[in-house]
Amino acid sequence: MEKLVKWFGYKLHLIIDAETELPIDYLVTRASSSDITTAHKMIDQLKTAHPEKLVKAQAAMLDKGYDDEK
User: Fold this and answer.
1) pLDDT tens, 23-38?
2) Which domain does 38 fall in, by range?
3) Is residue 70 part of a domain?
4) How many Cβ atoms are within 10 Å of 13's Cβ, its own excluded?
5) How is 5-57 classified by DSSP, letter by letter?
């Protein structure tokens, strides 16, 4: 008898304001989704919804999984 194993999961992507420690945006994706693609999507959405947040931002800190050298 063969045992069938399936893996599933989700990722929570957060953009947080470091000064206030409050979330600015979040997105839940499948665990298999690309971190880089998700980050670009979230930043584009932030440009549309709250452009002042990006203008005010001085730096971004990301996990290594989000690094695409852009």
Assistant:
1) 999 999 998 888 899 9
2) 10-62
3) no
4) 17
5) -----EEEEEEEETTTTEEEEEEEEETTS-HHHHHHHHHHHHHHH-HHHHHH-
